[in-house]
Task: structure prediction
Amino acid sequence: MTRTRGARRAGRTPWLYLAPALVVLGGLLVYPVYQLGLISVLEYTQAQVSGGKPTSFRGLGNYTTLFSDDQFWSVLLATVVFAAACVLCTLAVGCALAVLLTRVRAVPRLALMLAALGAWATPAVTGSTVWLFLFDPDFGPVNRLLGLGDHSWTYGRYSAFLLVLLEVVWCSFPFVMVTVYAGIRAVPAEVLEAAALDGASQWRIWWSVLAPMLRPILAVVTIQSVIWDFKVFTQIYVMTNGGGIAGQNLVLNVYAYQKAFASSEYSLGSAIGVVTLLILLAVTLGYLRLLRRQGEEL
Result:
């Protein structure tokens, strides 16, 4: 009996240590998500906010309105394609630079890491403003170097998305680079030396040796990148002036902001937020399930 009580107390001890963090997370995450879901099933516009009309229950009416809107599906497709491109480019740049860090000496390595961490630490608004200046049609140095004259990168839909993608990758790759570099340093040197002695190229070493051994780390940075890039807001809003000409550069977060605050349709904006949350949960759980089927422990 004494052993049973001791085992129960030992089992409760970790939860006691975690309790303060769980309370904070509950206040910062659970309650806002609850409010988001609640508003999404109500009739909640400026009239309800100002007290002119009573709040009424709509159930799935807001979602029906949202899913019947052609613009929502267009924005959703643009968000998925844009986020996928950002994730792929971020992983490619981050992994390539992580491998480069293992090939250079201490001073260049330190300089590269400091430069990358500086990009990572730069606020999104500041970074977006700097990139807008670099590609400015009148004063930006990029157009002068490329001989493009007064070409406006933010006027066309695809060039504007490309400009935002470059800024997103610039401020996101340091996390991937540092994380993957730490993982590579943990790989036994004998393994890499054996692969090199067998005549494997650098690409073959990465694809056949490093990538399988770093799969749990790559899973973490991939999921993190998907979450970050799928919910990009600041870069799009600042660099395309709220979504581009006629909304051609809208993504889900900016679309939700416009619905909620520009059109005062707070319930529709909340519904878009719930859909975004469910998509991210589905992608994350699906990716983790795929990894578990392959026998990886995270």
In short: The first strand starts at residue 42 and ends at 43. Residues 2-40 form the longest helix (39 residues). The radius of gyration is 24 Å.
